[in-house]
Design a protein that fits this description.
alpha+beta; Jelly Rolls; 14 strands; 3 domains; Malonyl-Coenzyme A Acyl Carrier Protein, domain 2
């Protein structure tokens, strides 16, 4: 489907099933690879045990040893592995297929393995998600009803709906994909062994952003001043004038627009705390590095990477990679778009001062392990 049509007719509006969205042969995810990743302490993983736990729908957190996985029953459990795109280059490459959505909205790619009848129960998500069937089959049911907190089953590890009634149902084969906007109740059940890729998109709330801003200590510190304080009739009253002063105090505490934009760029490209930064690359001398680019060699983003850029009011470019910020002149917008966009980065050195600055940036990013040559 054309991306413009999808954004116009479906994004955050209604569900969409896309048959054969991806060639099944390209979705090379298997059980052994996923189980191996779940043994890594730097990877967030969970087991959902519908029946074989100490209580229904028990959630256990990884890492999980091979011995633990061998003790699992034949059915009714799922393994969820978060942030696979931060660890597997092929998963990061899959996310590039969704570049019609802005980078900063992308959360991660979760890959789930489910035994026969494995599920995480009927539930709601507060974000957009694409559910791509990578192996096996999964039956998806969605509901047109609206659910409230009171509809959740109390006392469970998961937020499972107790009175779920579906209005539509599909059986997904490898390569099929289901898009769901926020708030649509859904329930996926594996039919035999199943592997599903969940491409989730962030929708940060105002409280989350304000909390992060406060934690970053980027606010301006002021205290209320009222040298003209007069005697008031009722000491218990917070007067209109005092409320105005306090509201102004809160508003003035926020950074100005440019500083706030730069903080947002850094904040929205931070890696999750559990994800290690890329290893530093081999230290090439500048002439050797530039010579490779001049011969037509291309660069690719290292894994893990979160990237974005903004255009400043002054005309300059602010580039953000994994929470770090780099400044470029406005004429380097094309390079910033390449670094943050899908596909390889192709750049050849020139003689201008701007070209030298761009080359220096690329070399720094390469040495920091953020960019690497594609061959």
């Amino acid at each position: 489907m054309d991306a413009r049509r999808f954004l116009r007719d479906y994004w955050q509006k209604r569900a969409l099933l896309i048959r054969a969205a991806f060639p099944a042969a390209e979705l090379t995810y298997d059980r052994a690879d996923l189980f191996s990743l779940a043994r890594n302490p730097d990877v967030e993983s969970r087991l959902v045990l519908e029946r074989a736990g100490d209580y229904p729908w028990q959630v256990q957190h990884g890492p999980f040893s091979a011995a633990r996985m061998r003790r699992l029953p034949a059915s009714h459990w799922s393994l969820l592995v978060q942030g696979v795109n931060f660890h597997w280059p092929r998963a990061a490459a899959l996310l590039e297929e969704f570049s019609f959505i802005p980078n900063w909205r992308v959360d991660d790619l979760m890959v789930s393995y489910a035994s026969d009848h494995g599920s995480v129960g009927p539930h709601l998500d507060s974000y957009d998600v694409f559910l791509l069937q990578a192996a096996g089959r999964r039956r998806w049911r969605i509901s047109s009803s609206r659910y409230q907190e009171s509809d959740l089953i109390p006392g469970l590890d998961l937020r499972i709906l107790g009175n779920f009634r579906h209005s539509q149902e599909w059986l997904l084969e490898p390569g099929d994909m289901l898009y769901l906007p926020p708030g649509i109740a859904h329930h996926g059940i594996a039919v035999g062994e199943s592997i599903t890729c969940s491409i989730g998109f962030r929708a940060p709330s105002s409280s989350e952003l304000l909390g992060a801003l406060l934690d970053s200590q980027r606010i301006n510190e002021f205290r209320i001043e009222d040298p003209g304080l007069g005697l008031q009739a009722h000491p218990g009253e917070i007067t209109a004038h005092q409320r105005t002063l306090l509201r102004r105090l809160l508003r003035d505490a926020l950074p100005d627009d440019e500083a706030l934009d730069r903080w947002l760029g850094r904040q929205l490209t931070l890696l999750p705390p559990s994800v290690p930064s890329p290893a530093h690359g081999r230290a090439l001398a500048a002439p050797a590095f530039l010579a490779r680019l001049k011969r037509g060699k291309s660069l690719i983003r290292a894994v893990p990477a979160r990237t974005a850029f903004t255009r400043a009011r002054s005309g300059g470019i602010h580039l953000f990679i994994n929470g770090a910020e780099f400044e470029l002149p406005g004429r380097s917008a094309a390079l910033a778009a390449q670094i943050t966009g899908p596909g390889p980065i192709r750049w050849k050195p020139g003689r201008s001062a701007a070209s030298r600055r761009e080359g220096s940036l690329l070399l720094s990013l390469h040495r920091a392990g953020l960019l690497q040559f594609s061959d």
